[in-house]
């Protein structure tokens, strides 16, 4: 037990675990190593998209960054599924991620399939085990059962399973209830795997990690190195593992968005302290708009208080109109961010799209208070877009995002997305930009990533190396000025 009686102090390792099953996102399969999830680097070009890596010659689906990854993957998992991917024609019609995970689960359960599938599992088996297994994963199958269209979907999945497993006889396929349950378990327990640049690259099921509950004000964070999951405390945690809370979704969005995303994605109603605050006062204060008076810098809550006089004395004339505009902006923001998330690293520079995003950003900046985290969300999306295109202006956007996150997570709070934003808020070329600004941002990045990622992580090492370089530059300038 650590000092102050807390089980975990900030930065303490809570859990480190390899996935039970995982897969690269269907849209990313051409760009990433099927085993380590790294972007496939090119030897002769700076574009990662030109080199397609070593492709599995049998299924023509999986690609690898190296022979080592290919060999390891074959031994550990691909051998069992390769012929299925070939049979199903996965290389020409990309199956959805859920389906790929199902194949992997079926392979895992093959040896004791009958024991582990729900409708046939003897309860005596459950009592004997110490570690978590497939049976322990929640599926919310009852709620799923009542979802419109779910049965049609499960029927399709079974037809697809027949194709991939070469089973023609319906009676030999897994039962409808078992497929539904498997689908539910994947939905409720799947972790979105992100790479060092916080881009989604895969989905995995972690038997121990999936036991951790969600909160919209979490005290721990998840970070990945390849497919390996690590959970670290971002605050001191008392009372042991049962009080550890991670965030399943981006929590810097208003309550109604969080509730919808958690219900759609994980089939539960969030009852964290932040969501139980019925008044939603705090949310409206966080996601604030500007005062109508151009001379005033105060934040106005985005609820009915927007129609009351501001603390500066200004009486708003368009309070209601501005609240309507806020709702529309929020809706459009979510669409734009979703679009970016779906396109992923494969997206190419699209000038028209970029201009539209820029115009949209200006509309947000016109209405929203500069500290509104919705702006941070969009700034970091734009930064990531620019970064993937190799544009030099990316750091400006990351800097804006990073400082907004700092307002809501003041030091000593740490968060992986904030740490990443500070790291990217620095010009890669030390000759460009303000050396002192870069230095300060890298200090922040190093301080945060040390806790969220630990000193062993490649992203931390990148920050540490950049900070050392920046320190040398700042030193030179200081000694010149003396
Ligand atoms: Zn690899
Ligand atoms: Zn293969
Ligand atoms: Zn919540
Ligand atoms: Zn005002």
UniProtKB/TrEMBL annotation:
Please provide the record's keywords in A-Z order: Metal-binding, Zinc, Zinc-finger
Tell me which stretches of the chain form a coiled coil. none
Q: Record keywords: Mitochondrion included?
A: no
Annotated Pfam families: zf-MYND
- By its UniProt entry, which InterPro entries does this protein fall under? H3K4_H4K5_MeTrfase, SET_dom_sf, Znf_MYND
GO molecular function terms here? zinc ion binding
Q: Name one GO cellular component term.
A: nucleus
UniProt-listed Gene3D superfamilies: 1.10.220.160, 6.10.140.2220, SET domain
Pinpoint the MYND-type domain residues: 33-82
PANTHER family according to UniProt? EG:BACR7C10.4 PROTEIN (PTHR12197:SF251), HISTONE-LYSINE N-METHYLTRANSFERASE SMYD (PTHR12197)
Q: What name has this protein been given in UniProt?
A: MYND-type domain-containing protein
Please name the source species: Ramazzottius varieornatus (Water bear)
Cite the source lineage. Answer: Eukaryota, Metazoa, Ecdysozoa, Tardigrada, Eutardigrada
């Amino acid at each position: 037990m650590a000092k102050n009686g807390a089980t975990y102090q900030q930065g303490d390792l809570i859990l480190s675990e390899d996935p039970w099953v995982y897969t690269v996102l269907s849209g990313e399969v051409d760009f990433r190593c099927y085993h380590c999830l790294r972007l496939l680097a090119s030897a002769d070009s700076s574009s990662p998209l030109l080199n397609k890596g070593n492709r599995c010659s049998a299924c023509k689906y999986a690609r690898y960054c190296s022979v080592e990854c290919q060999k390891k993957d074959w031994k550990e998992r691909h051998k069992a599924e390769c012929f299925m991917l070939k049979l199903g024609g996965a290389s020409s019609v990309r199956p959805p991620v859920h389906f790929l995970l199902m194949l992997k689960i079926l392979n895992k359960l093959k040896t004791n399939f009958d024991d582990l599938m729900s409708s046939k599992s003897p309860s005596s088996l459950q009592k004997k085990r110490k570690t978590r297994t497939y049976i322990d994963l929640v599926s919310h199958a009852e709620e799923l059962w009542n979802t419109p269209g779910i049965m049609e979907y499960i029927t399709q999945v079974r037809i697809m399973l027949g194709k991939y497993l070469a089973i023609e006889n319906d009676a030999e396929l897994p039962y409808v209830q078992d497929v539904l349950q498997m689908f539910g378990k994947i939905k409720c327990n799947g972790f979105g795997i992100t790479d060092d640049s916080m881009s989604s690259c895969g989905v995995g099921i972690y038997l121990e990690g999936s036991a951790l509950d969600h909160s919209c004000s979490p005290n721990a964070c998840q970070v990945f190195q390849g497919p390996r999951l690590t959970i670290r405390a971002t605050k001191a945690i008392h009372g042991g593992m049962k009080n550890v809370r991670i965030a399943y979704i981006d929590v810097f969005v208003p309550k109604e968005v969080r509730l919808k995303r958690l219900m759609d994605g994980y089939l539960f109603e969030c009852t964290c302290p932040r969501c139980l605050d019925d008044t939603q006062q705090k949310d409206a204060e966080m996601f604030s708009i500007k005062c109508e008076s151009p001379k005033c810098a105060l934040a106005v809550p985005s609820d009915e208080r927007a129609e009351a006089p501001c603390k500066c004395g200004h009486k708003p004339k368009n309070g209601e109109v501005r609240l309507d505009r806020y709702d529309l902006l929020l809706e459009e923001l979510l669409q734009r961010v979703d679009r970016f998330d779906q396109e992923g690293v494969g997206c190419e520079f699209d000038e028209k799209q970029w201009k539209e995003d820029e115009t949209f950003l200006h509309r947000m900046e016109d209405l929203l208070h500069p500290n509104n985290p919705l702006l941070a969300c969009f700034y970091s999306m734009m930064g990531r877009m620019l970064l993937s295109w190799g544009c030099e202006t990316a750091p400006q956007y990351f800097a804006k995002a990073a400082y907004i996150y700092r307002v809501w997570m003041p030091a000593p709070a740490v968060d992986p997305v904030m740490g990443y934003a500070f790291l990217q808020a620095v010009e890669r070329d030390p000759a460009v930009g303000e050396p002192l600004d870069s230095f300060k941002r890298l200090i922040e990045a190093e301080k945060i990533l040390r806790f969220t990622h630990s000193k062993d992580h490649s992203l931390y090492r990148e920050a540490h190396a950049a900070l050392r370089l920046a320190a040398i530059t700042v030193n030179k300038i200081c000694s010149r000025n003396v």
